Predict the structure of MDMPI N domain containing protein.
Amino acid sequence: MSTAPRPGEDGGHDVPGSHSPAQRAAVEGGAGRSATPIVRSHPLLKSLLGAWALAACSAEETAAVEAHLTDCAPCADEAVRLRDAVALLHPEDSLDLDPGLRARVLAGALNRRPARIPVPEWAAPYEAEASRLDALLRDIGETEWRAPVRLGWFDGRSPATREATVADVIGHLTAVDTIVAGALGMADPLRGASPEERTEALWAAEPGGRTPASVRSAWRDQEQTLIRTVSFAGEAAAELPVDYGPFALPLRDAFLDRAFECWTHAGDIAEAVDYPYAPPSPAHLNGMIDLAARMLPGAIAARRRAGLAPPARGLVVAGAPGRALHLEIEGRGGGHWYIALDSPGATGTPEGEVAHVALDGVEFCRLAAGHVPPEEAAAGSLGDEEAVRDVLYAAASLSRL
C-alpha cells in the first residue's frame, strides 16, 4: 500500500508538482497577476525574506511573503530582525545632491590640476570666477536665460537699479572684457569707451536676438583667450595699462576687477534663478578687497572734486603721516588696511589713524558692488564720523553698471 504523502502532509512544506489545479493556475496563469498572493513553499518564502526587507521583491512576491508572515511565527521574527538591520544600514537620507558639491569639486580641480602653461598668480582669481560662472550657466535651462535679473550699483548719491536678463548680464561682461582685450592688443572696436558705453552699445546692437548658447560662447571664448594670452606673456604683461575711461588700472589689477565683476554678476544671476552660489576662496577674496582698499583714496578725492564730499581737513606735510582710517575686514579674505583720507597719492599709516571701521569681507565686497547702502554697511565704527562716512560712500562709489 502506498505511503506517499498527500499535499500538505510534510509539515507545511509543499512538494513540487503537488499543487492543486487551482494553485497551479495561480502560479502559471492570469491568476498570478491578481491581488491573491501566490502560494509558494516555506523554504522559498523564507529565502525571500532578505529581498523583502530590502523592498526588492516583486509585487507578487511581496504579497506572498506578507501572507506567509501572518501564519509563520519564526519567519515573522526573522522578518522583524532583517527590517531593523536594513534600517541601520540604509538611513533615510535625501537622494538629492548637496547643492555645494559642484563648487567644492570645481574648487578642488582648480587647486590641484597643474596647467601646461601656468596662469599668472594675479590672473588666477579671474580664471576661477569665470569657471564658476560658466558652471552656473551650464546648469540653467534656456528659459532661465530670460529670467529678470536686478542689477544694482551706487551712482554717487543714491542706489541705482536696472532690470536685465541673464543673457544681458553675460553680454555686459563680454562688453567690459573687451577693454582688457584691447590692452593686450586684441580687437577693440570701441577703444576709449567706458564700461557703461560698451554695454549700452552691445545691448542696442543685440536686443535679445542671440541664442543663449551663442551669448555664453562669445563670453567664454573671449575669457579663455584673455587667460591664454597672459599665460604666454607671463609677468611681462602685469603692468600694462588698462584704460577704463574714468580711470586706469595695471593689467594685474584689471584682472582682479574682472574677477570681482564675474563673482558679483554670477551672484545676481544665481539670486534670479534660485541657484546656490558661494563666495570666492579666501585668498582670491582678499585680493579683491585689497584692490578696492587701494582704490579708496582716489575715490574719496573724486567725490570731493564732484562736490559729493566735504573738502579734506588734514594738512598734508611731506614726511608726516596724514589722516587715515583703519579698515578692519573680518572673516573670509580678512585683514587690515589704512586708508589715506587727505591725498590720493598718500599711504595711510597706523600713526595717522583717526577712525576705525570693521566690516565682514563679503559685506565689504557687497558695499563696493553697490549692493549695500553705505549708511548701513559698517558692523562697527569708532572715531571721526566724517572720515567713516567718506570711506563708506567712496567704497559704494566704486560700483558701476
